[in-house]
Amino acid sequence: MGAIPWLWEQLQVPVYCTPFAAELLRRKLAEAGLLEVVKIEIVALGDRVKIGGFDVEFVSVTHSIPEPASLVIRTAGGTIVHSGDWKLDRTPAIEPQIDMVRFREIGDEGVDVLVCDSTNVLRQGHSPSERDVADTLAAIIDRAEGRVAVTTFASHVGRISSVVRAARAVGREIVVAGRAMRNTIEAAREVGLMKDLGTFIDEEAYGFLPRNKTLLLCTGSQGESRAALARIAGDNHPAISLDERDLVVFSSKTIPGNEKAVASVVNALALQGVEVLTSDDALIHSSGHPRQDELAIMYEWLRPRALVPMHGEAVHLKRHAEFARSKGIDETVMALNGDLVQLNPGPVKIIDEVVAGRTHVDGRIMVPSHDGPARERRRLSFAGIVCVSALLDAKGKMLQPPQLEFEGVPETDDAPIHHELQLAAIGALEDMTGAQRRNDATVIETVRSAVRRAAASNWGKKPRCKVIVHRF
């Protein structure tokens, strides 16, 4: 959703979404000045729309955001069900439930291929219900004596609603910290999802509330450095702080890759004497993705001829394909990003590759991810840079010793690296013939190589080296 404003110039097509997603998207588009430009087509759960040669039906499922849907895509070449993110939760925090009746009916019509969520396939059994999580959170909030701060995914309206209801039940005021959390709550209220949960208090009033009458809802469950919780943990939030014996509840699961950032926030809170609860300590989070028993039930409803696992890393895709075959779905294919898969006529198979990958937003522009400036900055952060300025005349004679500037290259009395690199640059120029010094490309490469070799010898790292030749 956040990518749409950036990719609009390339796409320029209508965007189909449910009402809550549309409200969130409008806010993103308004910030980018595109609200009146992008065409948003709102589709209610259960509706069907014609898009070119496709007949697409939005079927209600349960997940950790409001109004999730699986897509039933009917084409002249067959019927494909794309599960989207889902789980089987019969007591979700926000209705409706997964439409079990409709999935059975679709299975009776016939499904050629199921493209299905693989995120939780490594886990056996059934994911806990949001009702169980809500009960645990309510008990924790009821027992707390000081302030309680709860952080979760900003898009998890059901979890936010459960926390608010639990806080209201014990007379706590709700303070919301974090722009993404406020946007989600405002969008949910706009479409009628949180209209019965009362008013929230601004951050500025936080310090005036009694500790045992305060509940803080904040962003930062993944350790994001600019999110509200990281700023609170670092004691640099302008309006909010926590004290000893206050409680922070991470009602979330750490996404792989974010472990270090989350640990940093948890440790900073611990140094302040704040108590921290995570999903390792209590049932305060439930995944929005299906475990094996839920997958097996979806297979029974739809009875697809073939299965394409999606969402997850290679190990999840491989395990999902194996699990599907163990349940009688013989046709499977493990497709990675960029693989072009033929679904019909069967069997499903990879037939080609298409361009795929990531594009970085760098400030206000889009740049490539692998060979773009971000990669260069990572290199600079590892070993710094040396800039060499060489002053030569037209015949190749050195008019003065080369001048060097250093960024990120260490220098100590015991290791005079800067001096050694300057000597290397001088030596490289002196060892060259006059003819060689008259060729700028030869000068640049010879000096660059000499400086990097000297750095490796004296420091153990090879910094980036830029050589500029001035001719007089």
Q: List how many beta strands DSSP finds.
A: 21
In the CATH hierarchy, the third-tier topology of the largest domain is known as Metallo-beta-lactamase, Chain A
CATH architecture of the largest domain: 4-Layer Sandwich
> Would you identify the regions where 5 or more consecutive residues have pLDDT less than 50?
none
Report how far apart the termini are. 55 Å
**Helical content class:** 25-40%
Backbone CA Rg: 29 Å
The CATH superfamily of the largest domain is known as Ribonuclease Z/Hydroxyacylglutathione hydrolase-like
Task: Give the structure's gist in a few sentences.
This protein is of the alpha/beta class and 472 residues long. Helix content is 34%, strand content 22%.
How would you describe this protein?
The chain is an alpha/beta fold and 472 residues long. The chain folds into 3 domains: 43-125 and 287-357, Ribonuclease Z/Hydroxyacylglutathione hydrolase-like (Metallo-beta-lactamase, Chain A, 4-Layer Sandwich), CATH 3.60.15; 130-277, Metallo-hydrolase/oxidoreductase (Rossmann fold, 3-Layer(aba) Sandwich), CATH 3.40.50.10710; 366-471, Ubiquitin-like (UB roll). Helices cover 34% and strands 22% of the residues. It contains 14 helices and 21 strands. It has a 7-stranded mixed β-sheet with strand order 3-4-5-6-7-13-14. Strands 9-10-8-11-12 form a 5-stranded parallel β-sheet, with helices on both faces. A hairpin with a 2-residue loop joins strand 17 (359-362) and strand 18 (365-368). It is globular. It starts with a helix and ends with a strand.
